Amino acid sequence: MGESQVLGCAVDVVLSEPRSMMASQNNRPAIPDCELVERMAGRDERALGELYDRHGAPVYSLALAIVGERADAEEVVADSFGQAWRTAEQFDPVRGSVMAWLATIARTRALDLVRARGRRARALTRAALGNSEGFAAPIASAGEAPDRGVERQEERRLVVRSLAELSEPQRRVIELAYFGGLTQTEIAAELQEPLGTVKTRMRAGLEKLRGSLVPPLSRGES
Amino acid sequence: MTDHQWLELAAPYALGALDPQERIRFDAHLAQCATCRAEVQAFREVGGLLAYSAPAAAPPHGLRDRILSAARQVRPMAARRGPVLPWLAAAASIVLALLVGNAYRQERVAREQASRALVAAQDSVAGRDSLIATLLAPDAGTAALAATGQPPAARLFWIPSRHRVVMAVYRLPPAAAGRIYQLWAIAKGKPVSLGIFNTAPDGSLRAVMNAPRDLAFQVAAVTEEPAGGSPQPTQRPFLIGKLAGGD
Fold first, then answer.
1. Among A25, A61, A178, B175, whose Cα sits 20 to 30 Å from the Cα of B140?
2. Residue B66 in contact with residue B73, Cβ under 8 Å?
């Protein structure tokens, strides 16, 4: 965290209370995620183990959704937690939750791996097959998610529900961007739709998601 | 492009879906548009949550052990602190030379602003007392950090006797993903890092940074750097201010 004290968990108490930290961590009696990351920066391996126990499953699910092969997903998750371990010091709770940080690392690595292999992301294959179910459907029927923590499951349910409220074309362009790593122009080519249509759908879909996701998950802040 | 058209790029930008050329142009726009940066930050939070929509899958059993045993062989980046501190210490020999001007008035205004900021913040009593004591130190100097021709976005309080810098940021949208803000003391034209920081989603921050002993500087500046900060600025400062008082 360099020399600035404000970036650590502890200093938040002294000077400011980052909003994003609170969103995923209320009601959790255990050590907050961001403190685990702080301990990781101090080379506490148990903290890394605990972080994996909390977020390993969703990170693995994300990686698998992008790369499609279990062995590749395992590789991505191992590398991602390795990166989190090495760069724990740089984690900044003000910028977002620990899970969002891990997801960003894993998504980038998964997309890199897919591109390095000259393959298409799994999300693209789905879209090409015209799978109208999107990602929300399988998870909704998957029942109990394999990760721990009630509020995380609630987050998951909320995301799934919010995605289900989008129109199918809106959901598809967002999934192609997030899970497929495609730009708007690439999505337009993929779907054989006008670029303007893709842009409009993506923006409208994200606006709607923002409306349904951000306020409920931030409610615990005050 | 109109402001409205720029704003429309915030959502796809946050998702990494802009085409390269468009992204580069929007990057440049973001450097000077607070509204768009706030918008990007909001959409980035939405993007982070999308990870949860992946179909749930259970990771293989050996993965946890694999991660932990790999970690045992790698030192985390905390070890990086080593070279940074001597580098900061190198700045310690630089002599204090201050621009005085209307120091008194600026200081008074700045302190009033800080008091308001303090009242608004839900700080612990101890933290507040300590901060007030720091701000009211007799040797405190202040600098208003602003972009050219703009009202100040941040206020710096420099307390040489405590080797402390207190920073109050008012209107600075959080840095983009993978980026961070870095505060520099410019001593005799040479930048000395005072630390990295980021703002809350509402663009505000109150931070205390420890400065190297005997540091003296006349100008403070803020750049945007890759996450983790840089040993030297990699960009032109977008906020800059002259110090008044501080002796």
1. B175
2. no
